[in-house]
Here is the input.
Amino acid sequence: MFSDQDLQVMDSIIKRYPRSRSAIMPLLHYVQSKAGYVTNEGIELVAQLLSIETAEVSAVATFYTQYKRKPVGEYHVGVCTNTLCAVMGGDAIFAGLKEHLGIENDGVTADGKVSLEHIECNAACDYAPVVMANWEFYDNQTVQSSKDLVDAMRQGNPPAPTRGPKTLPTWRENSAVLAGINDGRANEGVQAGEPTLLGLKLSKEGK
Amino acid sequence: MSKLTPVLSAHWDEKDSFTIEAYTRNGGYKASAKALAMDPDAIIQLVKDSGLRGRGGAGFPTGMKWGFIPQGDNKEHYLVVNADESEPGTCKDTPLMMANPHVLIEGCIIACHAIRAKHAFIYIRGEVTHVVRRLNQAIEDAYKAGHLGKGIDLVLHVGAGAYICGEETALLDSLEGFRGQPRLRPPFPAIAGLYARPTVVNNVESIASVPAIIANGAEWYQKYGTEKSKGMTLYSLSGHVNNPGQFEAPLGITLREILDLAGGVRTGHKLKFWTPGGSSTPLFTDAHLDIPLDYEGVAAAGSMLGTKALQIFDETTCVVRAVLRWTEFYKHESCGKCTPCREGTWWLVQILRDLENGSGSEEDLAKLLDLCDNIMGRSFCALGDGATSPITSSIKYFRDEYIAHVTGKGCPFDPVASTLFSGAGAR
Here is the structure.
């Protein structure tokens, strides 16, 4: 599963830190980029690389919700159902997607393309209701737009995130970015959306 | 003259604002060059004089925090930037880092010099991939340009979905490679923080405010804001308003003024309740439109300025549903370390669910308040305290609405009416 080249990358991740154990989180993100989720093999490897017990790695892997202990879809969809998004449409979007995809919370479609999760506030409240896909922003969603989004995912051509790269990376590709691997796409996409710029625009208009 | 004062947000409308070219073109990295030539103590004094206070919620004076780091102790010192923005309603640091990551890096360089740290970490939440890209690219470019690497190293550390890691000591445990659970204080991070070394933990916006203060001086910064709440800050307006967004204004502006700028509450509706600083700050109502939004003004009115996350809800919103959802959030995010929070939030959810679906009783309200009493001030960290804020404040202002759920045996509100797409496409 993990090649010599992977081991070199993991070694470079460990070297970022004054103390090796600090590398556990990026290493687990890296495991997800290779295996799709945090596998037992991945846990054993991280424990070995950091010279700690597998139980210590498991303890961390099970604490944080972004680490998955079973496979997710190529496109992992998170619908914000924290209060503000929920009230403004997140609840309806989540219910609509569950019905449309025929899966429940934490479920994966049979073709392995899409998984679904309800998520907490994702720091984009001025773009509510918010849907995340592989942790990229899809702003100002409706029930219909989110159904169209997952349909496009299943056909293999999802639209670009609202504020993100020009095309939607896969779950594994974005897990590598979270491990700190540069995919060369930082300059893609907008610098900001309209709500972000509203105050600045008004001040330039003297308001 | 505009009521708004864009400084952090001044160049966000330039399409390449996140690049080192744009940042340098707009005068970036001049403040750090100036600071590196200054005596570290003089920088701490300047930041103290500016009156800058922590923008992560607590409002602790930033310069004073820096001054707590022991000097000449022959230990490594660390700067840790809290970029784990997760408080419901809070959405200022994420767009800041997406549009201008370099201002945060420059702030880190200045802060490291001031506190004699050679190593800084930015702990960012893991659910914002594109911001991670932008920051890592910016760090790479800052190394290439020689701003980093000559005595100061900076590492971006990506979290993995845990609200509790926004609590500074849980953040440090997480950064050390453990489950994110808060630590007993004292010792405070200034004495024993990351790797048990003296550590400053600052919010993104606090650190990003430093370059402008160094460049323009403490007196310039003090001209903005109110007596004890100096400077300008990002107010994040969201919810049932015609034009949500980020508004950078001097501390002390009111919600009425911000709503005027944003085109008001959504047309045809009226303000019902709002949070001044995220869900952990007690709710306000339409009676609080003219409260000055600074640390003192909001506290005097019974809430907290917090992260200036102004979440607006109109009369179509059921306050019981809103509070239940926040409570479910706190229960989910409770780290489990202390009993009042772990068990208490679980019970709060059970009782609120009953109340919301109409199977609760009036006595449940007293039980809720009693539980809140036993969580507030008795939990290990502020998460437990925060969990009680929406409950106690909503019962204070909307007791009748809770009772209506009991007497009517259900929720009197139509959830479709509060969505943005009420009408077409709602089903």
Remarks:
- Chain A is about 45% helix and 10% strand.
